[in-house]
Amino acid sequence: MRRALESKRGRFSLVVLALFVFVAIFGSLLAPDDPNASSTDVLAGPSSAHLLGTTEVGSDVLSQLLVGARVSIVVGFSAAVISAVLGAAVGLVGGYFGGLTDRVLDAFENWFLVIPQLPLMVVLARLLNPSLSVLILVIGLTSWAGTGRVVRSQVLTLKERAFVERARALGASDWHIIRRHIFPNALPLIFANTVLIVAVAILAEAGLSFLGLGDPTHISWGTMLENGFDAGAPSAGAWWYIVPPGLCITVLVFAIGLLGYVFEQKVNPRLGERI
Amino acid sequence: MSFRWLVGKAGAALLTLIFVLVFNFFLFRVMGDPTAQLARLPRATPQEIVQLRHAYGLDKPLLGQFVDYVGDTARLDLGISQRTRRPVWSEIGDALPWTLLLIGTGTLLATIVGTWLGIVAATRRGSRTDDGLLGFSLFTYAAPEYWIGLILILILAVALPIFPAGLQVTPGKEFSSWFAHAADVAEHLVLPAIALTLVLLGQYFVIMRSSMVDVLTEDFITVKRATGLPWHRVVRRHAVPNALLPLVTLSAIQFGYVMGGLITIETIFSWPGLGLLEFDAINSKDFPVLQGAFLVFAVAVITLNLLADVLYFFLDPRVQTA
Q: What domains can you pick out in chain B, each with its CATH number?
């Protein structure tokens, strides 16, 4: 964190991220209106009563936008945690033990890397019933392979290092070596990768929600775009309904992606050499 | 020549394909499809359910069912769509040409524009143009592709009604010639193709830029410059052809990503390809179509990855001696 603050890009993305997290926590208090309240003011443009206009049932777009931040942040971070745990576990075990275990895990990883993620998520989300926890699970379960791959190659170099050899010579168990020597050294890399997964997960949540696979009981930026599209907001020229949710997704993903990029440059030795 | 490397790649692709078949089988036969079928008949008597299970082969042992499934798939018998009652393979066959037209156009445009911008940025590294292009490509990476599409509709179809906002051809229109028909389709293709191009552009740009930067710092470029060759010829004749290599792999790897983007882009533009087919299947819980479309997506990605490896084998001599 401290090192990320050293760069201008890192500071910028942390400020943006903090702003979005703040809205995610206090969004419902900040909202000027009940985001679900309908009125006869249907698809009306921005006015003093509704700063960002109204939806197809006359709800306040700004209120929905503020409340919707929560789903993006919660799903994004929770799915990334699942993905980090899975990726780290597979990478650590495969990389450390090698042999058949590694080959089986590697084949598994390859499969997840090759299979197109959105169609896979769509299939899984459709078979289960849409809810926030299903979204988190589906996104987390389909996005860990990249982390697994990176952690594995890091572990492969770590386990040849002198301090690991020394621990082994002193009779330390495999579990002890992984926990006390390998894992702490791989942690920065896992962290940097996970930040990038948060961005991927936020995009995935929005995409699935846009396709009608979101949680119908929660307002999110993806469901706003879905409702707006279904109600014909683009052909009605209702830009106030379409532009804000997409822009929020873009700015948030942009900031998180930039943050992950900054972290990655700090921790990935291969990238470090080239800069 | 290390053909073993090539054989290894082909073996890995085959293994992934088997994985896909097993996964598809378990997900839909064991978890999804049969229960969904039977739940649609709440008043079915126990005998009828037994008959149904027999008709679908669900009373066979699991391995037998799997063998049946692989056989059916090999014969392109992917079942019947629950929504349209047509064979899934005919639905896919009808949609495929439209998807290929869209992907082909989008990929071609993204390759040309992305490569060109990558060369521009790499030769002016650190300049304001370079920074601007990098920022733009990060923006298109962060923006959801369907949102970009919706913005295109708002600007180029509604505010300035230049292009049609949806469908592949003007409905009900009679065309005097083949050419008029093609022109109408091309007009409808513009917006979805631009949307897809913008989605892909960022990746092509970033890869081409870093590949060019790598090549431009290599010794042989310095040697060429020392021989007194003009700079633009060094770039065009020597740097660019070498920097293009990573793009071959990229186009294949990107394909999986493109497939994902297709679902939403085709949906918002009502473009009747595989993506729209998948979207309709999602909404009507049409599991046979979902299963079939997923299989086609997966097979396409696996095949293209293998193709990229084969191409690389012949394009980059370093692989053959490795």
A: 94-313 (1.10.3720.10)
Record: contact B256-A117, CB cut-off 8 A? yes
pLDDT at residue number A1: 55
First to last CA, chain A: 20
CA distance A36 to chain B (A): 23
Over 50: is that where the pLDDT of B73 sits? yes
The residues, ordered by sequence, that sit 6+ positions from A69 with a Cβ below 8 Å of its Cβ are A20, A23, A24, A27, A221, A248
What is the value of pTM for the model shown? 0.87
Give the per-residue pLDDT at A274.
38
Q: Tell me what pLDDT residue B320 has.
A: 63
pLDDT tens profile B234-284:
887 878 877 777 777 677 667 767 777 789 999 999 999 999 999 998 888
Q: What is the mean pLDDT of chain A?
A: 86
Min Cα distance A34 → chain B (Å) is: 25
3-state secondary structure chain A: CHHHHCCHHHHHHHHHHHHHHHHHHHHHHHCCCCCCCCCCCCCCCCCCCCCCCECCCCCEHHHHHHHHHHHHHHHHHHHHHHHHHHHHHHHHHHHHHCHHHHHHHHHHHHHHHHCCHHHHHHHHHHHCCCCHHHHHHHHHHHCCHHHHHHHHHHHHHHCCCHHHHHHHHCCCCHHHHHHHHHHHHHHHHHHHHHHHHHHHHHHHHHHHHHCCCCCCCCCCHHHHHHHHHHCCCCCCCCHHHHHHHHHHHHHHHHHHHHHHHHHHHHHCHHHHHHC
Contact B147/A123, CB-based, under 8 Å? no
As for the ipTM of the complex, it is 0.88
Chain B positions in Cβ-Cβ contact with residue A212 (cut-off 8 Å): 282-283
When scoring B92, B154, B294 by the number of chain A Cβ atoms within 10 A, the one with the most, hence best to mutate, is B154
